[in-house]
Amino acid sequence: MIRSLNAAVSGIDANQTMLDVIGNNIANSNTTGYKTDRTEFEDLLGQQLSSPTAPTASSGGVNPMSVGSGVRVASIGTSFVEGSLEQTGISTDVAITGNGFLIAQKDGETFYTRAGDLKTDASGNLTTPDGAFIQGYSAINGVVTPNGTLGNLSVPSNSVAKPKESADITIGGNLPANATTPVQSSITVYDSLGRAVNVNLTFTPNGANSWNMTGQSVDPSSGALTDAWATPQTVTFTNGALATINGTAVTGETKVAMTTPPPGWAGSLSIDFPATTAAGSLTQVAGQQTAAATGQDGFASGTLRGFTIGADGTVSATFSNGQSQSVGQIATALFSNPQGLTKSGATMFQSSTNSGLPQIGAPGSGGRGAFVDGSLETSNVDLGKELTNLIIAQSAYQANTKVVSTSSQVLQTLVQMP
């Protein structure tokens, strides 16, 4: 009787643990990046009632007889099957498609997580919701050193994109054939301090298939005009295509530097004529006038507007001047035995002696999954399966209580024997 009681009690304890695990799974069915647990049982050592005997010439063999001592929880394993992805549209949200964990540090401890609902704090640090710092490789002047020293990643709110002085003004479009009036175009360029400077270009007809190009820059402080060249630059066309500039045949992309760039210009400023085979090159054919300065390569300084996270974990800050710059790259970790990781709460794991050492690198490399920005990995809990397991655990629990009740009644009957 005592054996049956002990076995039933062990069954109650084991199935109670299974109910605890199922309850926790169901509770976390909406937890970002949660990985479901599974309870596995094993039987206890049985008491051998008789030993086996081998067959002889006069009798057959006899199998052993034993009575088990009950059950216990062998392990509670974690399923790292990838959860489905949910699009959020939030730039700080990332999901990992494939293997790997984000790396976070808090209070001197290192954690690993699949939950990519990242935040920024008042100092611009990239963190988990509970304040752990996301680890990665910092960028210097917009260049990330792959597999460099890990550290906290941050995007300071007071970040400023440095200005870039314009070096080229691109010319394109069409100068009408047989035109008799000048064609003018104006464009804004930027000096080394990011100040906006207007440059005016004028194409004046100079006979058949020939134009004189002149230019002036406007000082933003005084409004004074500065001629780009002491004499006009001569541009000619053949069969509608650009042929020569100042008598030199055009064979491809051609740049004409200003003899006198705007005042205070640190470098040179050139007019860039695309190759005649390029889309948008300068032409002279019958039709409307579309010739204009179509672009330039400088920009003013800019203030931080936000940031994005690329598939390879690169964090790129975006600025008000339309520019973007890499500020770092989020690192991810692989483990030879992720089942050996220990849960630390807040959807975090820590390495253990049985998980193996973390293999750290960039997302999308060495078997590590890539990032999907603006998305989150949902919990991988299968509610249908958990509810089914709930019924199984409940039935087993109740059955074990029946064994206790029956064994108790039998013992009472034995005690009450006359």
List keywords for this structure.
single chain, 418 residues, mainly beta, 7-stranded antiparallel beta sheet, 2 helices
Which structural class fits the helix and strand makeup?
mainly beta
| Main sheet characteristics | 13 strands, antiparallel
Coarse shape: rod-shaped
Helix content: 10-25%
What is the total tally of β strands? 35
Q: How large is the share of residues in beta strands?
A: 35-45%
| Uncertain parts | none
Helical run tally:
2
What does this structure look like?
The protein is mainly beta and 418 residues long. The protein has helices at 2-27, 383-415, and strands at 37-43, 47-50, 65-67, 71-78, 85-87, 94-97, 101-106, 109-113, 119-120, 126-127, 133-140, 143-144, 150-152, 160-161, 168-174, 183-190, 196-205, 210-218, 225-227, 233-238, 241-245, 248-249, 254-257, 270-273, 282-283, 292-296, 302-309, 314-319, 324-330, 332-334, 342-345, 348-350, 359-361, 370-373, 375-377. The strands form 8 sheets. Strands 7, 8, 11, 12, 13, 14, 27, 28, 29, 30, 31, 32 and 33 form a 13-stranded antiparallel β-sheet that branches. Strand 20 (233-238) and strand 21 (241-245) form a beta hairpin. The longest helix is centred in the last third of the chain and has 33 residues, at 383-415. The radius of gyration is 38 Å and the shape is rod-shaped. The mean pLDDT is 94.
